[in-house]
TrEMBL record:
Organism, scientific name: Bombyx mandarina (Wild silk moth)
Start and end residues of each stretch annotated as Disordered: 1-47
Signal peptide: none
Biased composition (Pro residues): 34-47
PANTHER family: PIGGYBAC TRANSPOSABLE ELEMENT-DERIVED PROTEIN 4
Pfam families (UniProt xref): DDE_Tnp_1_7 (PF13843)
Gene (name only): LOC114253244
Protein name (record): PiggyBac transposable element-derived protein 4-like
Domain PiggyBac transposable element-derived protein span(s) in chain numbering: 87-456
Compositionally biased intervals (Acidic residues): 1-12
Amino acid sequence: MLMDEDEEDEENGLNVSLEWPPQSSICTSKPASPMLPTPTPVSPTPMEPSNKFKFVWRAVSMPQIEPHLRREPFSQINSGPTVSFASPYEAFIAIWDREIMEVIVRETNIYAQKLAMAMLENGTIYPNSRITHWQDTNVNELYTYFAIVLAMGKVVKNRLEEYWSTSQDIFSTPCFSTEMTHDRFLLLSKCLHFNSNNNCDPALLTQHQIKLLKIKPLIDHLNNKFSELYNLSQNLVIDESLTTWKGWLDINQSFPNEAATAEIKAYELCESQSGYLWRFELHAGLDTSTPQDNPISGTVPALVLRLLDGLEHKGHTIWMDSFFNSPALARELKVRGFDCVGTLRTNRQFVPYDLTRLTIKDMTVGQVLGCTSGDVDLMVWRDRKRAAFISTYHGLASTRFREKLKPTVVHDYSLCMDRLDRRDRLLATFPIERRTKAWSKKFFRRLLNISVLNSYILLQNQSLLHRNFRNALVTDLLTAHRTPKPNTATIATQVHYPAQYPLIKRGKSDRLRRQCAVCPKRTVSYCKACNVAMCTYTCYETYHTSH
């Protein structure tokens, strides 16, 4: 830290005005108050734990140290995919491997059986109900289901049934019905499940864990796969991702001024250059159980440190917006071997009052006001609006862009964040998150969409466009996992539900009767799966609970 000011400077506050644009290649500062002595450059001294969050703000020392000399050295040599892939299919199944697919298959089959039993107990199951035709799914069928969902993002229609329309016109898409029937697709969508509800134990789980229980296996698996398959480059972005949700949800975020007033929010750590999602965390409300004993123990700083866990002392630069940034977090990241750059809310803790009280009326266009504490720089710049920035290495360096001189930190921040916006535009081009009534399934589709983009980045084929990658992936999935259509007339139904024996004679109401397996009565009903006669209302549950 550069701490060459007197103690009275900290008490009296800071009022530093900087001429802009600089008169030479080196920025010059001009103290606005005669109380401030001309600062002398001092070599940084090691930071003791006791004064980590003691900030002494002063004018920027002149001449400035070049930003690249203050930046943490980057030590990751081999950035990029850790495994090479030959096709879109190989890159995709490296993420959605057989292990996670078998988990989804198992939970989906269990949930389908429980759903059928619940409908039976409630009296809402009928002979024509789709659930009566349920057959246990398998990994191949689930990959086919994924392929159809991805194809719907490429071929966008207003209503789901239009994909299976039999009309012979220009809007016809007969290949969907070739791969899977409409009823089967709806049944899989309804029964798709990722975690057992029996795992919800309030005595063992926190409130956050209970809220995310439905998709916890997906979050854990994808976070492990994303980080295992890719080594990050130097510039990383932490940002918020919003998935539109119109229903009520305990974990959603409300945005009254937006078109969609409720969103499912996720916090993402991405590589700036490629947009590769390396780690993410789903918002589940404020965690009040975390002790607030120091400036970085709050919800947002703790979130940032969790996302960056395992990347310490490699020289990464973290780019964040004002929702995340603060002087305390910037210093903590610097101690851990990161650099930190981004916009700043001037009402954050430890921001000097002279910057906090500045308004756009107090500044002229192009004017810059700033200060430093040695390892953390704060800067307020007026262009069309007033903008505040924080950086651990930029200082007040300037860059000429399109015949206009602006602070280097502004130019670099815009460049890094614009690259991430390109990723969001690619995802929005293929809207597969539509047509879901459960928030967990909607977020699953969001993760499926992101994993396709990650697969595209893992393939590292610059000659293959993203849309062509998706086409090839859907085709490969259908080819590799297509199964012959089963003969439904010869397959026994695996879902237990009651049915009636056939009529003895056509045109008559009398039906075949059999001895009930539980009571001595003769009955016309039986269990379709067990093929055993039993009374529907009095003996059906007794028989199935005892066998």
